[in-house]
Amino acid sequence: MTQAGNRSGGSDCQAGHLPVHFSHDLGGEPEFDHFASLAATICGTPTAAVTLIAGDMQWIKGAVGVGREAMPANRSFCAHTVRANRFLSIGDATADDRFRDNPLVTGTDHIRFYAGMPLVIDHEPVGALCVIDTKARDEGLKPEQRQALEMLAAQASLQLQLRRALAERDGAVRELNAVVGQLSWAATHDHLTGVGNRAMLRRTLNGRVGKDAGPFGLLAIDVDHFKQINDSFGHQAGDELLKEIARRLTMALRLEDIVIRLGGDEFAIVLDRVADDATLSQLAERLLAAMRPPFIYEGRALECRITIGGARWPFHSPRADDVVRYADAALYEAKSRGRGIFALFEQEMLATRAQRRLEIDRARHALAAGQVVPFYQPKVDLQHGTILGLEALLRILEPGCSAIMPHAIAAAFDEAEIAQAIGHSMLTQVLRDMRGWLDAGLQFGRVAINVSATEIGDPNYASRLLAALAQHGIAPAMLELEILENVLLDQRSAAVLASVRTLSDAGVRIAFDDFGTGYAALAHLPSFPVDTIKIDQLFVRELDNGANQAIVRALLALAAELGLEAIAEGVETPQQAAQLRALGCTVAQGFLFSKPIPAGDVASKLSRKPRTARRPHARPVTEPRLPSCRAA
Ligand code: C2E
Ligand code: CA
Ligand code: CA
Fold first, then answer.
1. Rounded to whole angstroms, how far apart are CA atoms 193 and 131?
2. Nearest to 195 by CA among 140, 230, 242
3. How far is the CA of 513 from the centre of ligand 2 (A)?
4. Dihedral sign, CA of 268, 274, 277, 283?
């Protein structure tokens, strides 16, 4: 039943002309054998077949009197029926140029008579129902036979159509299932690291608490100095680091434990079967240990440190939300104790956490509202009372109240992003004020700004600051940075040192703030490019105390020895000023001389005749209120 003269008809039957996207099963089915057998009976032939032409092959879907082997379409009679897309009748194949040389005609199949009716799906011919005889039949089919063949072909077409629809539906369902699977994975997983996400945390917690699946521990984790790594090495490095951390967390834990990335550099872990503090600490310590080796990225070693807070369910609270909050509070505590450690939740931490939240929110709000401004406190020559410079101190001016002091937003100085935003706002305003005073011809000396460890640990800090100075046309030597001495103890000291060196080389003055209160300063002093030490108010406040006097004397001697300037902070009384002078201190700062004042008051302060610091000053000085502020 088939062939195609490879000369004339053959080329017409190539794959391109035939339906190639036949989507259902090409294999034989008994139901189609039934069609074939009916057709053979009705037409009185020994052979009949339901064929499909797909690609360049003919497939037998059902047959009687012939096998089911597929064959090349270029030999197929039915391929001609399909191509013509109408009834085809060949009375004697040996008399037809198209089939005379076809092996099915010349060979043992010995085909002479062929009649085929196309099978059509969606108006597209896909195969044929054919009857075949080894005897020629010049008269062809009788009209009623042909009609019956047509009806059978229509029925077979319907069956094929149904199968295709079912196949497509199954395919669609399979595809849909795959998509649903992907979606549900994506809905509960972090796409960067592949660990669970917030939704997974929620689901896990709800599941455990709901089913009371036994006690569990929750760890809240923060990557130390992630922003700094991102800033110095780029986002790609940051992403790789997060992936590495997720990997190490997962590897260090048991299969039942669930690692979650909450977003940014925050992770959480649900630890299965944790019934006591010791187990929780042990697992947390294991994670800290896993982070100890640096992560090598493109040949560079990146610190991979984390800080961990932990709480337990149901020990700390029967509510999952509480446990999350408590672990977070413990994390805050661990961070404020110096990072790189684990802290277990204690009830008192809640107040600290709430306070920190409040402070950070207040800072955010103040920044957004443009309420963060510098006030200036003079640094005074103890001998003559002349103003040698100013220290810029942050104030928040909310309409209708007295200026809010920096301690009200203390936590914000530790949060990388907000600390930098505050620093940037302060620096810009200070430089603008300095520019204004310079333009007005005022002699204000140097201006000092306070920088947090978070800011100066940023590898771009120095270049940003120098650019800002240049932009305002201000010489670096007119600016001083006040850095807390304990910043040296910070893990970031290498980055801090780099920033400080760059700035110092450029001429910016460096001061150690609150000097004498930390442990690091003395050891580091000689190796640090420092110009000034600021003797902490703690020692100045009780100069009558012999020990304090001894410390101040020692600090002054040390400064003299190293060729540094020394300033005494927090001078409130003439007695203190006198004692300091007697100890050899030449520069001081404190309420005795002036409280911090708004920028607008600086000009009049500078032009006022210096009050001699020797004269006892009876009236206590209070910090000035803004005109708009209520008396508080
Ligand atoms: P600090 O740098 O040691 O600033 C000196 C603090 O002592 C200031 O408090 C100042 O108002 C206060 N003070 C000055 N003279 C006297 C005095 O005679 N007696 C007493 N009792 N206090 C005096 P303030 O303004 O509340 O600032 C507190 C701290 O906040 C600062 O301590 C500084 O570490 C930080 N800070 C202030 N402004 C900024 C800023 O812009 N950025 C950063 N990172 N920190 C800032
Ligand atoms: Ca300071
Ligand atoms: Ca200070």
1. 63
2. 242
3. 6
4. negative
> For atom 33 of ligand 1, which residue has the closest CA?
450
Whether residues 453 and 321 fall in one domain: no
Nearest CA to ligand 1 atom 23: 570
431/339 same-domain check: no
Say yes or no: 462 and 317 in one domain.
no
Single residue among 284, 318, 346 that ends a domain in this structure: 346
Phi, psi values for residue 619, rounded to 5°: -75, 125
H helices present in 272-401, as ranges: 277-290, 320-336, 349-368
User: Which of 167, 71, 158 shows the shortest CA–CA distance to 119?
Assistant: 158
From ligand 3's centre to the CA of 391, what distance in Å? 10
**Domain containing residue 33:** 15-168
587-588 and 565-568 as β-strands: parallel, antiparallel, unpaired? parallel
Q: Residue 452 CA: which ligand 1 atom is closest?
A: 44
pLDDT in tens, 163-198: 888 888 888 888 888 887 777 788 899 999 999 999
Whether residue 405 has its Cβ less than 6 Å from ligand 1: yes
The number of the ligand nearest the C-alpha atom of 379 reads 1
What is the spatial distance between Cα 12 and Cα 16, in angstroms, rounded to a whole number?
Answer: 9
Q: Which atom of ligand 1 is nearest to the CA of 484?
A: 34
| Whether residue 514 has its Cβ less than 6 Å from ligand 1 | yes
Instruction: Identify the CA nearest to 281 among candidates 345, 324, 325, 214.
Output: 345
Q: How many CA atoms lie within 13 A of 47 on its CB side?
A: 20
- Asked whether residue 182 is assigned to any structural domain, the reply reads no
Q: Nearest ligand to the C-alpha of residue 427?
A: 1
534 Cα: distance to centroid of ligand 3 (angstroms): 6
pLDDT confidence band for 415 (50 / 70 / 90): confident
- Kindly report the pTM of this predicted structure: 0.66
Is the model's pLDDT at 158 over the cut of 50? yes
Residue 578 has pLDDT above 90, yes or no: yes
User: Looking at 280-289, 495-504, 610-619, which range is the least confident one?
Assistant: 610-619
Instruction: Give domain status of residue 222, yes or no.
Output: yes
CATH number for the domain that contains residue 577: 3.20.20.450
**Distance between Cα 565 and ligand 2 center (Å):** 15
Torsion of CA 257, 263, 267, 269, to 10 degrees: -30
C-alpha separations of 368 from 364, 526, 599 in Å: 6, 41, 21
* pLDDT tens track for 425-456: 999 999 999 999 999 999 999 999 999 988 99
**Total domain count, the chain:** 3
Domain-embedded: residue 627: no
Output the pLDDT for position 426.
Answer: 98
Q: Give the pLDDT of residue 211.
A: 82
Testing ligand 1's pocket by substitution, the residue of 377, 394, 431 carrying the most ligand atoms inside 8 A of its CB is 394
